[in-house]
């Protein structure tokens, strides 16, 4: 592994070690923060974060469409080029729109849109 790393970055290994150290420190800090928050958060916040985790596939798939669609609207229709409203609004749209879309799919009784196959009860035609 070290040989591959050295071959990939050449002989300037010393230039990359601080970056690697900072990346490792950031990774360990994020892990430690998530453990501390998991143990100290109130139950209400824990439920919200858990729900986001359970809806992560929906957020992952739909956020690209929501954020890029909003970017097109902001740039071409609203003529907005300042990056801060883009970052703020696209981040909000990237989480809120997928969750709304998932609620809409449940409302129209299509809850398995983001799974590999429908539940067995839906295939058999039985009502639940």
Itemize the secondary structure elements and their pairings.
Layout: H1 2-9, H2 13-40, H3 43-54, H4 56-77, H5 83-107, H6 120-124
Helix pairs in contact: 4-5
Mean pLDDT: 82
Reading the helices and strands in chain order gives HHHHHH
Distance between the termini: 53 Å
Q: Per the principal axes of the C-alpha atoms, what is the gross shape?
A: extended
Subunit organisation of the chains: single chain
Structural class: mainly alpha
In total, the number of strands is 0
Question: Would you mind describing this structure in some detail?
Answer:
The chain is mainly α. Helices cover 78% and strands 0% of the residues. The protein contains 6 helices and no strands. The protein has helices spanning 2-9, 13-40, 43-54, 56-77, 83-107, 120-124. Helix 4 (56-77) packs across helix 5. The protein starts with a helix and ends with a helix. The mean pLDDT is 82.
Short description:
With about 130 residues, the protein is mostly helical.
Keywords:
6 helices; single chain; 128 residues; 0% strand
């Amino acid at each position: 592994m070290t040989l591959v790393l050295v071959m990939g970055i050449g002989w300037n290994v010393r230039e990359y070690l601080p970056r690697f150290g900072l990346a490792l420190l950031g990774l360990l800090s994020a892990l430690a923060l998530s453990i501390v928050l998991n143990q100290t958060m109130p139950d209400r916040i824990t439920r919200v974060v858990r729900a986001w985790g359970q809806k992560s596939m929906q957020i992952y798939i739909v956020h690209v469409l929501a954020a890029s669609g909003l970017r097109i609207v902001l740039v071409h229709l609203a003529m907005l080029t300042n990056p801060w409203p883009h970052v703020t609004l696209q981040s909000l749209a990237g989480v809120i729109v997928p969750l709304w879309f998932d609620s809409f799919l449940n409302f129209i009784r299509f809850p398995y849109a983001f799974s590999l196959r429908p539940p067995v009860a839906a295939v058999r035609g039985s009502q639940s």
